[in-house]
Amino acid sequence: MDSDRQADGHARAAAAAPPGDPVIGRLLDGRYRVGARIARGGMASVYEATDIRLDRTVAVKIMHAGLGDDDEFAARFVREARSAARLSHPNVVAVFDQGDDDGIVFLAMELVEGHTLRDVIRKESPMMPARALALLEPVVSALAAAHRAGLIHRDVKPENVLIADDGRVKVADFGLAKAISTDTQHTATGGVLIGTVSYLAPELVVDGRADARADVYAVGVVLYELLTGTKPHEGESPIQVAYKHVHEDVPPPSRLVPEIPAYVDALVARATARDRGQRPADAAVLLHQLHRVNQALAEGVRVDPELTADLAPMPVPETPSRPGDTAADPWDAAEMAALLAPAADSPAHAERTTAIPTYDPRPDSQRRPPPPAAPAPRQQGPRRPRRSKRGPILLVVALLIAATAGAGAWWFGYARYTATPGVIGLTQAAATSKLTDAGLDVKIGDAAYSETVGTGKVISTDPGPGAKILDGETVTLTVSLGKERYDVPKLHGLTQDAAAQKLRDLHLSVGTTSTRWSETVAEGRVIASDPKVGTTLRPSAAVDLIVSKGPQPIRIGNWVGKDAADAKQQLEARGLVVEDSQQDYSDTVPEGAVISQSPRGGFLFAGETVTFVVSRGPELVEVPNVLAHGVDDATAELEGLGFKVRVDHASGYLGLGYVFSTDPGRGSMVPKGSTITLYLV
Questions:
Q1: Which residue has the higher pLDDT, 539 or 382?
Q2: Where would I find the beta strands (DSSP E) of 336-491?
Q3: Taking the model in full, what pTM does it have?
Q4: CA distance 276 to 319
Q5: Quick check: 678 and 662 in contact, CB under 8 A?
Q6: Residue 236 has pLDDT above 90, yes or no
Q7: What average pLDDT does the segment 490-506 reach?
Q8: Percent above pLDDT 90 for the chain
């Protein structure tokens, strides 16, 4: 499988393109300016690029030169874009765009700065089960979303799990993703398996067909690797590894790490059961089982027989496989064919033996030697023909044998098999009618959501379309509930934890959380959500929360000496109440300005009160009439009123010592403490 991954912090120096790389610096589709190469695979290279239209950094995956001319490879590129674009999940690498610029076929994807799960395995494995499940949970969540959307990944492996520098886990490379169907082939042209042999489910090796349970098997192998640091099946060649997947169970991880609890062993065994019928039906079921194991680990449970029994796969009796099940060993099929074949001198012998599988993986010592060649008939001279009595007898015997064989075949079901009619996409009523007309019984199974099949129509059947089934047997229909969508609930006033739980209960997830001051919503409770209440979203879509920080503190400031009216206007605009009815004289603070305030500074909250003492200016006193008074009497009277006195002589001073005039004049209102000048004659 083409890894095409963004790995190890993108290791730009190691993966740098040669100086003559013609792609670097090119503007693709008039939009993507290609930068340094950050990864290279067998089919494509990944470059860091700038989306000049949206001013963001992206990863651009470019098919190698020459492959764009191959319709199959180009179609796979387009399929990858469409498959990933159908998924909206925080743990799936997003594909933004796909195009062809003068023969350069490319995908524009989310750029994930970080490393891969393979790097974590190298550094940390074997690791504690809780750590392994924490790494695996977002992977399974992403696959569950894909399975709900009707897609299987088909190449789950540590190299395709990206871990960003901020800890986000992303599943990449849905290039092999395909709609789930019983006929989903996992082969490319020529029947060559595409995938990574260490993670291939047995049914892929045997008949090349995959469903969601193949992804589950691969996840189980990855879990084993996280727990032990090794792959469960090793071999000198891919064929040997594939052989072990078919014929050997994945060993319990506790065989290498004894402290692993039995219920963790059971989880691995269930996910990697060779009989796919024993595995979880899809990643959503596996995610539920993973949560149960995680809870037991979090509670420190060492032994849980009930959980272990629930998870452990059931023993499978040694019975012949039904059509569609994982095939039996190839040599068993050969032996059965040999036993049922006509005698060596039968005219049908040559035709029947060509149908016997030629693959026999058993050691030479266990193989049956081929039967000795029949001796050639002796050549004799011409003989006069004669009527033989054996002919009619042999004919009757042959007819009886054929009739008996036909009756036996019918009795055991071989002749009574029919193909399951295709009813996917039909309404439940139409599908039921078609199957009933074909002589089959119909059972309605659990309904399921579908992104592609309308409500009330058939998503899938068991057995699948074209599968062999006996007359009168039952076909189970899975009927579509339509697209899985959920409305954003009312979250206003809930605590942050309660809002998050409410979203999880509706199969939505919490996105970013921001805070805001609020005068009406208590601290720690939700003010609003984005998208807003009632918005319809896909499952696992992120909802951003705006959480209250409580009332905003208001800075009071120091207003002493400043205009009281202006101070009042500004503070009331901030939500405070200003009390300024108290006034007093001040010789230093102008009239209308603040003499003092309470509180003197700091912070208050909206609705609280600030008190001002406002200046009335200096106290005014009337200048008395002291004209014709002696200078001593006039001075005493003025000083008694708080004035200061200065004596001067009037023009033409006569030396009598009486007050001729004052400045300010009599009756004037002047501030207390002002100086009054006396002019004497």
A1: 539
A2: 417-419, 441-444, 458-462, 468-470, 474-479, 486-487
A3: 0.47
A4: 15
A5: yes
A6: no
A7: 93
A8: 44
DSSP code for 416: T
Angle at 267 between CA 131 and CA 137, to 5 degrees: 40
Q: Give the pLDDT confidence of 589-639 residue by residue, as tens digits.
A: 999 999 999 998 888 988 899 999 999 888 888 899 988 888 889 999 999
On the 0-12 / 13-18 / 19+ scale of CB atoms within 10 A, 461 is buried
Active site amino acids: 155
Task: Give the per-residue pLDDT at 99.
Answer: 86
CB 215 within 8 A of CB 195: no
Q: How many CA atoms lie within 13 A of 648 on its CB side?
A: 11
Q: Which pLDDT score is estimated for 383?
A: 44
What DSSP designation does 163 have? Answer: E
Average pLDDT of the chain to the nearest whole number: 79
**Of 6, 23, 212, the residue nearest 119 (C-alpha):** 6
Taking CA atoms, 336 is separated from 47, 193, 331, 552, in Å, by 55, 27, 9, 83
Phi, psi of 536 (to 5 degrees): -90, 130
Q: Which residue do the tokens 């990574």 mark?
A: 196
Among 49-53, 300-304, 326-330, 640-644, the least confident range = 326-330
137: phi then psi, degrees, rounded to nearest 5: -55, -50
Beta carbons of 182 and 214 less than 8 angstroms apart: no
| SS3 state of residue 441 | strand
Flag whether pLDDT at 564 surpasses 50. Answer: yes
User: Where do runs of H (alpha helix) occur along 126-237?
Assistant: 129-148, 202-207, 212-228
Determine the average pLDDT of the residues in 184-212.
68
Per-residue pLDDT, 348: 31
Structure-block tokens of residue 142? 């992403």
Q: Where are the alpha helices (DSSP H) in 155-278?
A: 202-207, 212-228, 238-247, 262-271
Question: Quick one: how many helices (H) and strands (E) in the chain?
Answer: 17, 31
> Among 545, 531, 547, 526, which residue's Cα sits nearest to residue 487?
531
Overall size of the chain counted in residues: 681
309-to-263, 286, 315 alpha-carbon distances in Å: 8, 16, 12
- Which one-letter DSSP state was computed for residue 6? -
CB of 49 within 8 A of CB of 33?
yes
Nearest to 551, CA basis, from 516, 600, 584, 510: 516
| 218 and 176 Cβ atoms separated by less than 8 Å | no
How far, in Å, CA of 382 to CA of 380, rounded?
7
Residues contacting residue 17 through CB under 8 Å, at least 6 positions apart: 23, 24, 36, 37, 45, 47
SS3 96: strand
| CB 92, CB 84: distance < 8 Å | yes
- Which two structure tokens, joined as six digits, stand for 272? 């990697």
**Beta strands 609-615; 486-487: pairing state:** unpaired
Which one is predicted more confidently, 483 or 224?
224
Please name the residue ranges forming H helices in 232-358: 238-247, 262-271, 283-298, 305-311, 330-340, 349-354
Distance CA 39, CA 113 (A): 12
In this prediction, residue 649 carries a pLDDT of 84
